[in-house]
Task: structure prediction
Amino acid sequence: MTSRRTFILGIPTLYAAAACERSLAADAAKLDPKDPQAMALGYVVDATKADRAKYPSYAAGQDCAKCALYQGKPGDAFGPCAIFAGRQVAAAGWCSAFAKKP
Result:
């Protein structure tokens, strides 16, 4: 059985692991719009440039920062996305996987 002392001593390790994960996410490469996955989902760095003919689901005002899959902090220019693992997307960007935050 784990004692409370062992648990308390493990907290700094958990904190360090979480900080490392955030640091790695911040250092992730930016998603290239020419990436095959990005192209398949119609990703653009500027949401206003989304191809409305090809992606009729796009609506004005939609962008990655307002998407439930976007994991960046408010105000960040780029942040991680659940769809594009290991890469950062533009907060002002858009793709066809857009799902409005609740």
Observations:
- Residues 36 and 42 are 10 Å apart (CA to CA).
- The radius of gyration is 18 Å.
